């Protein structure tokens, strides 16, 4: 919805909104906010609200820590799960520096840069995500566990699907916030769920993903459960991904569509696919940012491990759904919901555009289940693997000047440094698996 400042001021009064959260996102995709009372609203809408950015992950040095929040008026929403007297609303903000120029480390700014490049080429980038998550019990202290009484599977319904009531509440709340929910269902693993909402222009979708995660977690909590987007919370069952469905529109028409092609795709779409495949290894630390992300990207659990594409099979990295017309799209299947959505969409778009500019042709089409190919067959088809752990992904990102340019110097450097630290911390741990395997045997 497009609002003017005056309309927001009027809404806040009419709806009895007491608190307004000015939101932004840090480098690692964590939602941050400064709450103001309605008395400060006008000041905030005039871009006069300041905050100290020095303690935000990936933001600035102490000596230049004063930053401004510029609310995006379109993003005004009331949280329906909060008290309905003295309501809570939010505005998503852009981050500006003290000298009133955009802060280059703001993830929204990084995505906007890629979007501007697309629009110079005449394209609108449309994205629809499929967020998966687990709903687990909490313990007596209200702390999250990885337990659940749920034993349902793919597309099952109540009473086996214990999450049905909670999911229903999530869907209703999201709809009240203006989400168009296309589907929601139980996923493959016990206690795992998916809720799909309609595609939108990329910035709107990235904002939606942030809001979606907040809503899902808040509503689960209200039901005494905990929702987690952790990619692989349980060994031996499917992990949670966030497939990204993408298309470019030009002059209101889907530029990926060409009905004369055997897969219904245009040349632009093939170039876009090729661009993503070209840059995929360097992007993986962004699309799959955690140590734990790589425990999902293993064979046998519906997640991709190879850099390949297919129109007939669901196993590869990029799938061409059978949909036609305005729904013609490509689906990238490796991202998981812990990625910073602004950065994920920025690298995907920039990589696709690079494919278009360089007129790249995608290699690595497969029509069988890749996991059934032998290593030699994979080599012959030119199919490479995704990075197999976070350190591999960091090394690939470090090699990719392209990805670092998309992120900009500030974020590129800080991100790599933080991820190396995360890896170092992890690799020196002694895990339960090691104790089980080695303690008594040696
Ligand atoms: P799947 O078949 O992989 O389970 P879903 O039906 O769960 O796919 O989700 C499909 C997603 O693709 C939805 O978010 C939908 O809005 C989105 N989508 C549909 N058409 C387009 C398009 N032209 N561009 C981008 N996303 C699209
Ligand atoms: Mg789906
Ligand atoms: Mg579906
Ligand atoms: Mg799914
Ligand atoms: Mg999918």
Automatic annotation (TrEMBL):
Can you supply one Gene Ontology CC term for this chain's record? cytoplasm
Cofactor(s) needed by this chain: Mg(2+)
Protein name per its UniProtKB record: Glutamine synthetase
Q: Enumerate the residues binding L-glutamate.
A: 296, 302, 314, 333
Q: Where is the GS beta-grasp domain?
A: 15-100
Q: Which NCBIfam families match?
A: GlnA (TIGR00653)
Question: What is the E.C. number?
Answer: 6.3.1.2
Q: Which Pfam families would you find in this protein's record?
A: Gln-synt_C, Gln-synt_N
Question: What does the note under cofactor report?
Answer: Binds 2 Mg(2+) ions per subunit.
InterPro entries (UniProt xref): Gln_synt_N, Gln_synt_N_sf, Gln_synth/guanido_kin_cat_dom, Gln_synth_cat_dom, Gln_synth_I, Gln_synth_N_conserv_site
Name the chemical reaction catalysed here: L-glutamate + NH4(+) + ATP = L-glutamine + ADP + phosphate + H(+)
GS catalytic domain residues are 107-442
Molecular-function annotations in GO: ATP binding; glutamine synthetase activity; metal ion binding
Q: Where in the cell is it found?
A: Cytoplasm
Q: Where does ATP bind?
A: 182, 197-199, 314
* Entry-linked SMART domains: Gln-synt_C (SM01230)
Q: Name one GO biological process term.
A: glutamine biosynthetic process
Q: Which family does it belong to?
A: Belongs to the glutamine synthetase family.
Q: Which UniProt keywords apply?
A: ATP-binding, Cytoplasm, Ligase, Magnesium, Metal-binding, Nucleotide-binding
Q: What class of enzyme is it?
A: ligase
């Amino acid at each position: 919805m497009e609002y003017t400042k005056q309309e927001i001021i009027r809404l806040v009064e009419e709806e009895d909104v007491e608190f307004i959260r000015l939101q932004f996102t840090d480098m690692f995709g964590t939602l941050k906010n400064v709450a103001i009372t309605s008395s400060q609203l006008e000041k905030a809408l005039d871009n006069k609200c300041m905050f100290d950015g020095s303690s935000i992950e990936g933001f600035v040095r102490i000596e230049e820590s004063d930053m401004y929040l510029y609310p995006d008026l379109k993003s005004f929403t009331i949280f329906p799960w909060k008290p309905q007297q003295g309501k809570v609303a939010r505005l998503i903000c852009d981050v500006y520096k003290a000298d009133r120029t955009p802060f280059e480390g703001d993830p929204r700014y990084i995505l906007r840069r890629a979007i501007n490049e697309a629009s110079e080429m005449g394209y609108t980038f449309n994205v629809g995500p499929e967020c998966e998550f687990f709903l687990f019990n909490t313990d007596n202290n209200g702390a999250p566990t990885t337990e659940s009484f749920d034993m349902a599977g793919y597309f099952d319904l109540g009473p086996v699907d214990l999450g049905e009531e909670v999911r229903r509440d999530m869907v209703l709340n999201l709809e009240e916030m203006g989400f168009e929910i296309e589907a929601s269902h139980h996923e493959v693993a016990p206690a795992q769920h998916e809720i799909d909402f309609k595609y939108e222009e990329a910035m709107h979708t990235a904002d939606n993903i942030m809001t979606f995660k907040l809503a899902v977690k808040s509503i689960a909590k209200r039901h005494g459960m905990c929702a987690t987007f952790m990619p692989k919370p349980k060994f031996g069952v499917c992990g949670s991904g966030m497939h990204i469905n993408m298309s470019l529109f030009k002059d209101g028409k889907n530029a990926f569509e060409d009905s004369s092609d055997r897969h219904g795709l245009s040349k632009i779409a093939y170039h876009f696919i090729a661009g993503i495949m070209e840059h995929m290894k360097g992007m993986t630390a962004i699309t799959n940012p955690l140590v734990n992300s790589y425990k999902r990207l293993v064979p046998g659990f519906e997640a991709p491990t190879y850099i390949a594409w297919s129109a007939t099979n669901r196993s590869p990295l990029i799938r061409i759904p059978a949909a036609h017309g305005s729904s013609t799209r490509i689906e990238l299947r490796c991202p998981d919901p812990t990625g910073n959505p602004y950065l994920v969409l920025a690298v995907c778009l920039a990589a696709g555009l690079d494919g278009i500019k360089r007129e790249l042709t995608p290699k690595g089409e497969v029509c069988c289940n890749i996991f059934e190919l032998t290593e030699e067959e994979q080599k012959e088809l030119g199919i490479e693997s995704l990075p197999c752990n976070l350190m591999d992904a960091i090394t690939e990102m470090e090699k990719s000047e392209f990805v670092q340019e998309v992120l900009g110097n500030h974020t590129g450097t800080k991100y790599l440094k933080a991820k190396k630290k995360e890896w170092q911390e992890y690799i020196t741990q002694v895990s339960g698996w090691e104790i089980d395997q080695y303690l008594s045997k040696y």
